């Protein structure tokens, strides 16, 4: 029996469904998908990271007597070329975003596909209400899954040791330049393995629940990118955290966060239109002024915490969770810009970009989602920065021009602008005015829906 093992977002050899379920003769492959790559800029940091991870996977596969054929093409072309080579099927892990679903439907017409839920702990159909419909709110969904998150260890999949490598041209490996990209400098934590990150996190997990919101504290696991590309399976991450000898409360809190990732995948699966539409069906009259959106993207809104977060994001491709909440609230509420624009902008740069988490989180911030904040709860960016960056350490590390400004001024509206010698943009909108405008508009939209 001949099978193709198509590695996509599961770039690992431990706890791998495809290496577990494969039967006999295998051709492991990775495709640098031209349909995706052609839309990215030449300096996309994620491609450097994926490229390194694919070469590493090839090395690991070789260490267990296998190898990895690497293509730079479209999946359709690759499988058309393999169609008459006698393969029984293709094994791969499943993805539920629109592009992935259409791609897999197309490929299944060429060679049958067998998919596995290997990037998430649960399959979205594993957790339904008594009447068979999906949950829309996180807490009851999570409670329903207590039999999973309460357990000490999830089953990990061992490797079939008897696989035989099909002979193929494994030597041809395109360079990053041949793929059309320039090597990028990556943030430090991406040079580390998932195991190393978990070891470092183990030293600080006891403060996770309290410290995780302070963006100058580096108190979170930074595992999101590794989870995104499957350098560690979520089951293995779960088991490793459960095994730590630290207090249960913080561990439980971390596991709960992991299930937010599950929940958003669940929502995208059951409500696929949420990729394109307001999930709660309201019709908001968004602000179409493009210059306002551009100022947000460039970090020139005149609100120090927003500008620092966005400029840091543009430089590194990373953003702390609390900052993501603040900038998404500011864009969708204070600036009243459609969440889809923010979602697309994050998607274009975020190293840990995960369609389901990103779409779900943006809809949450915009109060248009499944389990949303009420529309009248709007973050005040100045109160947020005063609370979570009291000494303005993070803000000053990015906005060097504010290095001599008192933190109190940075945390008050127009405080920085009151210093006429500073070259700092004026605020696009006043916080109070824009807050009221958003509440009025969301109230109208919600009333008209009901
Ligand atoms: C507007 C917005 C957009 C976001 N877009 C993404 C995205 O594209 N990809 C992504 O992985 N996360 C996204 N998040 C969630 C969250 O910001 C990141 O998962 C987190 O910052 C990653 O850092 P960490 O690994 O140190 O997290 P930790 O605090 O260490 O959490 C551990 C893991 O749990 C998961 N997780 C934690 N919080 C969330 C959450 N709120 N939603 C979903 N999963 C969560 C992640 O996989 C994370 O790695 C978004 C949040 C917001 C508000």
From TrEMBL:
The record marks 286, 339, 362 as: Electron transfer via tryptophanyl radical. Binds 1 FAD per subunit. It is an enzyme of class 4 (lyase). Its EC number is 4.1.99.3. GO terms for molecular function: deoxyribodipyrimidine photo-lyase activity; DNA binding; FAD binding. GO terms for biological process: response to light stimulus. Residues 1-121 form the Photolyase/cryptochrome alpha/beta domain. Belongs to the DNA photolyase family. PANTHER family: CRYPTOCHROME, CRYPTOCHROME CIRCADIAN CLOCK 5 ISOFORM X1. This is Deoxyribodipyrimidine photolyase.
């Amino acid at each position: 029996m001949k099978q193709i093992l198509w590695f996509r977002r599961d770039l690992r050899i431990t706890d791998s469904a495809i290496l577990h379920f494969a039967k006999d003769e295998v051709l492991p492959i990775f495709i640098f998908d031209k349909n995706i790559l052609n839309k990215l800029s030449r300096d996309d940091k994620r491609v450097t990271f994926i490229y390194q991870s694919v070469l590493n996977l090839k090395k690991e596969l070789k260490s267990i007597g296998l190898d990895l054929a690497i293509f730079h093409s479209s999946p359709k072309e690759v499988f058309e070329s393999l169609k008459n080579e006698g393969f029984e099927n293709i094994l791969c892990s499943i993805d539920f975003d629109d592009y992935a679903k259409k791609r897999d439907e197309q490929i299944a017409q060429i060679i049958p596909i067998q998919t596995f839920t290997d990037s998430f702990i649960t399959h979205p159909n594993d957790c339904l209400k008594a009447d068979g419909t999906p949950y829309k709110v996180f807490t009851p969904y999570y409670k329903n899954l207590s039999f999973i998150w309460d357990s000490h260890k999830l089953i990990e999949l061992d490797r079939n040791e008897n696989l035989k490598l099909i002979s193929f041209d494994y030597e041809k490996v395109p360079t990053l330049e041949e793929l059309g990209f320039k090597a990028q400098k990556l943030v430090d934590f991406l040079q580390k393995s998932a195991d190393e990150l978990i070891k470092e996190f183990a030293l600080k997990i006891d403060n996770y629940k309290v410290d995780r919101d302070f963006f100058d504290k580096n108190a979170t696991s930074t595992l999101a990118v590794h989870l995104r590309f499957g350098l560690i399976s979520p089951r293995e991450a779960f088991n490793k955290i459960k095994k730590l000898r630290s207090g249960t409360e913080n561990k439980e809190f971390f596991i709960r966060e992991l299930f937010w990732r599950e929940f958003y995948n669940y929502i995208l699966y059951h409500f696929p239109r949420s990729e394109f539409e307001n999930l709660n069906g309201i019709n908001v009259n968004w602000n179409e002024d493009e210059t306002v959106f551009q100022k947000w993207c460039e970090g020139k809104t005149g609100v120090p915490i927003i500008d620092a977060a966005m400029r840091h994001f543009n430089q590194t491709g990373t953003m702390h969770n609390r900052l993501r909440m603040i900038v998404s609230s500011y864009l969708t509420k204070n600036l009243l810009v459609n969440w889809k624009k923010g979602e697309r902008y994050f998607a274009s740069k975020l190293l840990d970009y995960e369609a389901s988490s990103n779409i779900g989180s943006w809809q949450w911030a915009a109060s248009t989602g499944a389990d949303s904040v009420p529309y009248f709860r709007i973050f005040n960016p100045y109160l947020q920065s005063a609370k979570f960056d009291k000494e303005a350490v993070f803000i000053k590390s990015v906005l060097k021009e504010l290095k001599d400004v008192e933190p109190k001024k940075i945390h008050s509206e127009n405080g920085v602008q009151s210093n006429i010698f500073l070259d700092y943009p004026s605020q696009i909108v006043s916080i109070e005015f824009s807050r009221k405008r958003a509440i009025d508009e969301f109230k109208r939209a919600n009333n008209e829906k009901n």
